[in-house]
Amino acid sequence: MPDRQLSPIQVYVVGPSSTGKTTLCNAVAKSVGLPTRCYITEVARRVMRAKGYTRTDVATIEMQRAIMLAQLEEEANALVRSRWGNSEGLILSDRSGIDPIVYAIMTAKDEDEARQKEDMLVSLPAFQMALRRYREAIFLLLNPVEEWLVDDGVRSLDHHERCIKVFRQVLDKFGIKYQEIGAETMRIEDRSLAKTVEDIGIRE
Question: Which of 162, 136, 118 is nearest to 15 (CA)?
Fold first, then answer.
């Protein structure tokens, strides 16, 4: 159908912070010549700086809600731009609206608080609209590689293994299919091109 032909492939790279998601996305974007209007990156960092949040605020629902809404707005804008002449056929993002849910769960004091935070984020109309898109999108879950872990002074490096587990649980819960890029894929060339470009059928 014509509408489906015009719909770009949406690719979301998710996983623990500081594990190379943006580095991988930069490599993919460069390899396929993706213009900046089709590439969503560093939304959380921009929100934190604009609103004065620090890593000590990660546990607050206000911060995660702000990041989620900003991310979803960026995604919606990218889709609008794609309908007005984007012929590249790809929208790439180094996070998604799922990420704030994962961090809200991870930073909760107990299961009741985790459930309350999750419900608050999931109930947002913008997320419900995005969820339909996510079920048709490509999600790549990036496992941490020790050599890639860099403390950027903004986000915490703790609990990577638990973070991966929660990502799997949340993605499965919402019926979002995903591919994992494992720690055995060490080189950026392997992680970006072999595991991403080839897997989703995009050619240079």
Answer: 162
